[in-house]
Amino acid sequence: MNFQYLRTSALVSALALLTPGLVSAQSGEPLAGLEVNAGAYLAAREAGLNGDFVSAAEFYQRTLETDPDNIALMENALASLVGAGQWDAAAPLADKMIGENDPSQISTVVFVVNAIKNGEWEKITAALDDGMTLSPLLDGALEAWAAVDRGQMTDAIAVFDEMSDDGSLGSFGNYQKAMALAMVGDFEGADAVLSDEANADIMRNGSAVLARAQILSQLGRDHEAVAMLRSWDPAQIDAEVQSLLGRLNAGETLTFDRVTSPEDAMSEVFLTIGYLIEDQGSPTLTLIYSRAAQELAPGNTEAILLTARLFESMGQHAIATQVYSEVPAQSADFMTAELGRAESLRAAGRLETAIEVLQALSRHFPEEPYPATILGDYLRAGSKYAEAEAAYTKALDLYGETPLNLWFVYFARGIVLERQDKWDEAEADFRTALAQDPNQPSLLNYLGYSLVEKGMKLDEALDLIERAAAMQPSNGAIIDSLGWALFRLGKYEDAAQYLERATELEATDPVVTDHLGDALWAIGRKVEARFQWQRALSFSPEEEEAERIRLKLELGLDAVLEQEGAAPLHGNSDNN
Fold this sequence. Notes:
By secondary structure, the protein is mostly helical. The protein has 31 helices and no strands. The longest helix has 16 residues, at 262-277.
């Protein structure tokens, strides 16, 4: 195989080449043959743009039947096949591109991944010698781990050291060197690399921290491992860290399993690149590297989670759900994966199934409060208020005497209590939330608006809403609450001004528009009031609200208030 004519070796330059659907012919020539199978090409392009890689791969392959030598089509077919995880189907296309001296970033990645997967490291070494290049990072890693596979550690260390001498690759080369040493049982050598102050940057990486904990345990230095894990950034202490701490405190010697083979190591390399390019605006390119990491180490849960997250970002919730489900229940990342799966199901409109996933997760982790909290949120979204109350109560019980600020859990439980007409309990939760965090606009607004609706403590309600409005002056819901509070206080002119502003911010909200109609009626602008009520009806309000609006249109607001047992605004309901 001849790699002398590789189009690019720079990692970021592949961005445009690896976007399915963004097809262009070489040298600007039109795509030959598409007049014969234009339908398949257009379908492939559309599917690729939407992130539907399974369909895109199928349609691009159909298009290639008409024009089998079209490099641009092969490039897009490869990207789609890899995005769909179909590496075996991608291999012949990659080999064809390389064999015809027209390799690209994606075809070379496919070649490398399949060679590693099949244990054909000698093919990779020969290709590197023949001019194959992906990026300095990948090239060095491939050369070094190929030497490890041959049992030539001296050669491997020399390559890692050469990478470490490159300022841009220093930390990466040293980390890979430590993993190679640990994999072959040289834990003292591995720890010497990781503990070197010159390599301090390495230990800001979570994978390095977890790896060193295992290395220290193998050296019989469990107390150091525990101290290191406990001193790690609290925001980074996830389920895996907690699991390691629990095992160390129980006296267990940790097995070093961060890297158990050159395949594992290269999986981490591809994943590292995926993380590095994730924020560069091309989820398709990032997906190629996360898929490569998965293919080389199917148990690499970090790669699974990155892949699933990328599909979510593309709006491909069905495949994101399927990828999340690949994380096994015994994994430390299982909770994260199931929470992601539930969110993908919810985003796909399958709220009931998402709730079932969270209920199962809460049973799987009966002592963990977070799944119960999220379950409460989903039940609340499904208007299952009694069940949501139970979930939030369970979560709060599990949190116990925690120093955490739990204002949102109390706020959320207050909402579902209020929806069940348990006002005294709801108000207690709202005020507990307010005591924990008195500067949350949504909380201030909800409590203030609830008091307004109940005609209670109107002066305090107005103060709460005014504080919320000061924090978020462009929030239409909050400005509506402020206008409505002023209306209930009889300050109709001021109310109308705020409610007009609220309708500008929430132009199609039926409640806000209905409120404006009431305020306009109160200040005598009755024609405009009826116009706003008509608009409110056009925005599909709840049926109970719609019926009340129809009555106001027929009888006027004063007559409706009298029917409801309240005093009319103008004292004479006949003037409609």
